[in-house]
Design brief:
- Chains A, B: It comes from Salinarimonas ramus.
- Two copies of one chain form a homodimer.
- By secondary structure, the first copy, chain A, is of the alpha+beta class.
- The first copy, chain A, folds into two domains: 74 residues, Glutaredoxin (3-Layer(aba) Sandwich); 104 residues, Glutathione S-transferase Yfyf (Class Pi), Chain A, domain 2 (Up-down Bundle).
- Chain A is built from eight helices and four strands.
- The first copy, chain A, has a four-stranded mixed sheet with strand order 2-1-3-4.
- In chain A, strand 3 and strand 4 form a beta hairpin.
- The interface between A and B is large, with 45 and 44 residues.
């Protein structure tokens, strides 16, 4: 299998960690993708041009990251990162919340990347930042119940916090001690997290 | 169950159509949500403030729309809108492509809604519009193979095209005759599509 992603992508990081936890890393070749390059095959593999994309052994392109994580779980036998019974939808909702946090953070990064200063809109950036804050507030209160579960939801949560470390200088850490402690535990339990930290 | 959504939401429309196809509409009360209102309970139900959110009978909040559609499929017995075996990941990838098309279309709408004219960025809007065009080009070539399948992928595709009808005056129709014919067939087969057309 081939994974199209970039070292900085938090959604690609989710997939790399999932593959490692499932023992599938050896079966996946990472081929870097450049979302900004119109000539990159990425835009044929996924017409909306987002990463990550997984090319399966028969050449089928799968996306986006929740679909890829579920596919890898299926390849590994199923029910390991996404439980089949009770708890499935809570795990998937936690993943959606973490992915939504990342989306709101990315839109703040894109505000700078894709616009000259005079066309940036402070109310839009604040609107996205409030989404991140509300998600962190909610997760700070909830993370004790999450505990040391290792699944698609907690992998996404770790990658969301890692993205805030990477792009927002880890300023979240001052206000969310429970999440800091939880991420420390996750990092200790899941070596792939440290190995996929963007430079 | 309670569904928080708005009449204009394409992702909420997916859920409403899925519920209808699965025979679950009678078990779901729709409670309108206003994503722009800080006092709407929505922001407690889903901290990132997106719709739709499904409140299950025990009060658990589930999101986002792919998770809700899968949950409803599970409630209805499973394997009806998302096949369990072969084809599952193609269905989920088609859904992700249609959802990605919608996301790129929504960002163009938000450019107007959330910014004064002098802070709109034409290159950003064009970047999103190109995503929509590439997705339509890809789907136009592929839709013959999709045929009359009724699943999470084709429901999402119909809602994506419906969103372009709603917010972009259906200008896509002039260039994509296969998709127009496919949507006509879908509309005829799935009464809930017409019943959920935004005003």
């Amino acid at each position: 299998m081939i994974l199209r992603t970039s070292p900085a992508s938090p959604f690609g990081r989710k997939v790399k960690i999932a593959a490692s936890v499932l023992g599938l890393s050896d079966r996946i070749e990472i081929v870097p993708a450049d979302t900004s390059d119109p000539n990159d095959d990425l835009r044929r593999q996924n017409p909306v041009g987002k990463i990550p994309v997984l090319l399966t052994e028969d050449g089928t392109a799968l996306y986006d990251s929740p679909v890829i994580v579920e596919f890898l779980d299926h390849v590994a036998g199923g029910g390991r990162l996404i439980p089949a019974g009770t708890g499935r939808f809570q795990v998937l909702t936690l993943q959606a919340l973490a992915d939504g946090l990342i989306d709101a953070a990315i839109l703040q990064v894109y505000e700078v990347r894709y616009r000259p200063e005079e066309r940036r809109e402070a109310t839009w950036v604040a609107y996205q930042a409030e989404k991140v804050t509300r998600a962190l507030d909610h997760l700070e209160a909830k993370v004790g119940a999450i505990g040391d579960a290792l699944d698609a939801g907690t992998i996404a949560l770790a990658c969301a916090l890692g993205y805030l470390d990477f792009r927002f200088q880890g300023t979240w850490r001052a206000s969310y001690p429970n999440l800091v402690a939880w991420l420390d535990g996750f990092t200790a339990r899941v070596p792939a997290y440290g190995k996929t930290t963007p430079a």
